[in-house]
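Justification of resources, computational component.

The compute hours requested in this renewal are based largely on the per-chain cost of generating structure records like the one below. Each record pairs the submitted sequence with a full structure-token output. That output is archived, and it is also reused by downstream analysis tasks.
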Amino acid sequence: MTIPFQCTCGQLRGEIDPRAVYVRAVCYCLDCQAYAHVLGREDVLDGQGGSDIIAMQPGGLRFTAGTDRLACLSLSPKGPLRWHSACCNMPIANTARTPALPYAGVLVACLATSAQALDAAFGPARTALNTDSAAGKVAATPVRTAAGIARIILGVVRAKLGRTRESPFFESRTSRPLAEPRVLTLEERAAATPPPRG
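The structure output for this chain reads:
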């Protein structure tokens, strides 16, 4: 069974294989919040500024339509690549800058299924990351966070040892990103980043 995803207007579509998922978590870091703000998509954040993310092996994700609508930005010259739809600015996923690191953080907001189906496939999001940057009080989950990080590391190592490094976000022959990343200027990043909490 696969889980479909799509952008808001439906031009960019695909599916993910739940067997490729490492862990589900909510990230409250300022970079994830800035990513949503610069796209004008604050609607993908929860009330405390969190992004519900499925961390997974990128090879378990497949585009089925609209890859010409795929766009990419980065908050800094060496930061992760943050993929979104060019048509409606829907955030899709975060990846490393090369396919050599088999990791993709897919935003739950783009998954086209019910909350019940998501919980059945991945479990509810009980791991909270970077809670110090939340817009309000969020309980830290140190034990779950450590376990989640361990699952991600184990999944990445297994993928690398199994040579399953293919990523739909990069050209298989050249390893170049499917879309040229737009790197934010310092001014753009500062304008999009919420002030530190406290």
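The chain has one domain: 3-183. The mean pLDDT is 94.
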